[in-house]
Amino acid sequence: MPASRLYRLNTAEWTLDYSAAVQLQNPGEPFPGWCPCYLIEHPEGLVLFDTGVSREMAADPEGYGPTGAPHMAELLQTLDLSVGRSPVEWLAELGYEPSDVDHVVLSHLHVDHAGNVDAFPDAEVIVGKRELRYAFWPDGVQRLFYLDGDFAPLRAPGREVTAVTGEHDVFGDGSVVSFPTPGHTPGHRSLAVDLGSTSVLLAGDVANSRAGYEEGLVASFAWSLEDSLESIRRVKDRARAADAEVIVHHDPEDQSKLPDPPEALE
Question: I need a labelling partner for 185 at 20 to 30 A (CA). Which of 52, 61, 135, 164 fits?
Fold first, then answer.
């Protein structure tokens, strides 16, 4: 059966140099990227896709998590939390408690996507197996974006973590399907949502902007350019086959295609 509603819940706005967000284009021009997560209502449960930016980390990067994240202090100067709310605050506005969330599906474990996983200790966390392994031992520039304060809680006793490969059908009915789109990171995944009357592909960070998605210009810090371009093609092919709307995660214009809460896409 199809999902019932899709809510876009913005947690922050993080401004990057455009040339970092869209491969070496327009250096010096700012790119104000949204940092949303998404709540999906389904007759058999609630799904949260990504968990946004942690306000705890933003308040005290040096003391965040087991080893701290002091390198984030400078980057936080370009973070604007006033334009968003935490996932827990959004859920409260919609009449839900964190314990109501049955599944947390993560596109990847970068700081702007996995920042509040600890707020949902009762939920099954669905994450790519390659992503989970890489997050603890990233290399190169990727080391900047993985914070153990975000994902270390997944190792807590009793946490239900499902590390997946290939496609993963959350409810077994084709309505909410996580599928691999590596490149931005080794284990990056996107989410296909069937609402019955419409279909949406939440592309995550296959590209950081609509222009990057259309032209194959991914983030300059992408883990693999080759895999990134292949994943963009995979998303385009899937969208064409399903007649689905593609939403690029950080692009403000793409995000404006979804209604502001408490309104939802149905």
Answer: 61
